[in-house]
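Input record (one chain):
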Amino acid sequence: MKEYRKIFVICRKDGDIEHSDNYCKHGPMGEMEDAIGYGTLLDARKFLTSGDAQTYIDRELPAWARPLHHPVEVFPWDMLFASPALTWFMFHADAELPQHLLEPSSGRLLIWRR
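The corresponding structure, as predicted from the sequence alone:
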């Protein structure tokens, strides 16, 4: 079987990658200075390794949020309908992956939590 490219997202430990519990971004929202915006797999920030995702958690997330999140591997079949382009690059690991496919979607409705 051909090896596929692994992709990871940051998910709440009490969440599920299929139910909009994927980290997209954080920052001020209303009166909260450091809220976190969650969204679908398509909207989520994606990483090429679990280590990259964990480093992002350790260095970028607010201190209160670090123990609540962990890297989760996303499989090609998870992305099939959300992002056919990313799915193609996951199955063609030798092709150069465009960086914009890893970035969180902008202008999407996010669920903000603290």
